[in-house]
Specification:
mainly alpha, two-stranded antiparallel sheet, 2 strands, elongated, disordered C terminus
């Protein structure tokens, strides 16, 4: 039998926070906003207090082994946690320490913005950054590839592609427009690396296959940028991004990472040996 993704002890702790910090209306609104409905009342309640019972009426019908339901439940818990912003600081710190300890056992943490996130994000293969002059911007975008926040992950995936294209062009001594769109950056960097379909010699072995693969690779990068325009966190979006889940974020993150790794590995092969590492 599969184990619950969030242990009973975590749920009970949030139940106590609901009892201490919330109201019946707040508890209802928090669960209702994530699409949960309460289950039937049992003949005998295991806990006392209307707020505890209301919490249990929702929590008891959640499938705690279902990732999609657990993700929504964690957003409910984020809302519950926000109710403590007005409580005495020392008490809140004690509660935070206890909650962090309990959540850590299930692989979660609470960040500085009060969001409940995986404590250990999926690890991507290292990108070969050692030959770039200043890879800080790429490392920053890598740190934001959080599949549990799909709009942010998609925006960061697009930004990672942009930053990598520009850094590779800089390493090759090529100029680019600072405000260039992703399609232009993709073409420019692949032309500079001689990895664009137009740069393949007509006599190259397997030319047609190579051209198709490189063309598809370009479209993957451009597709991530277009996905960001539809679902990303930018542009002052006034409506929530419905229908997005971790699988969509993983798709964008993995696609961007694959594209950027190809660019950086090709750069490594194209640069003369003496210029593999920037001069101090």
């Amino acid at each position: 039998m599969s184990a619950d993704l969030v242990h009973l002890r975590v749920r009970r702790e949030f139940r106590e926070l609901c009892s201490g910090w919330g109201t019946l209306r707040l508890i209802e609104d928090a669960f209702d906003a994530e699409g949960f409905v309460p289950g039937p009342e049992p003949e005998e309640w295991e806990v006392s207090g209307m707020r505890r019972r209301l919490f249990d009426s929702y929590a008891d019908v959640i499938d705690w082994q279902n990732r999609e339901q657990v993700d929504r439940a964690m957003r409910v818990f984020e809302e519950v946690w926000s109710w403590g912003e007005g409580v005495e600081a020392e008490y809140r710190e004690r509660e935070l320490a206890k909650m962090l300890r309990l959540l850590d056992k299930d692989g979660y943490t609470i960040d500085d913005r009060g969001r409940i996130r995986p404590a250990r994000l999926p690890r991507l293969a290292e990108l070969p950054l050692e030959h770039l002059d200043d890879p800080a911007s790429i490392e920053e975008h890598l740190g934001r590839l959080d599949p549990d926040d799909p709009p942010l992950a998609i925006s960061s995936a697009k930004s990672l592609i942009e930053a990598t294209c520009k850094k590779v062009l800089e390493a090759l001594g090529e100029e680019y427009e600072e405000r260039a769109e992703v399609p232009q950056l993709v073409k420019s960097v692949q032309m500079a690396l001689k990895a664009h379909p137009e740069t393949i010699a007509p006599t190259a072995k397997g030319k047609d296959t190579i051209v198709r693969v490189l063309a598809s690779l370009s479209q993957v990068a451009i597709g991530v940028a277009e996905l960001r325009n539809e679902y990303g966190t930018d542009h002052g979006r006034t409506r929530p991004s419905k229908g997005l889940g971790p699988r969509h974020a993983h798709l964008a993150v993995d696609a961007a990472h694959t594209y950027c790794r190809f660019l950086l590995q090709t750069l490594h092969d194209r640069l003369p040996e003496a210029s593999q590492r920037p001069a101090p």
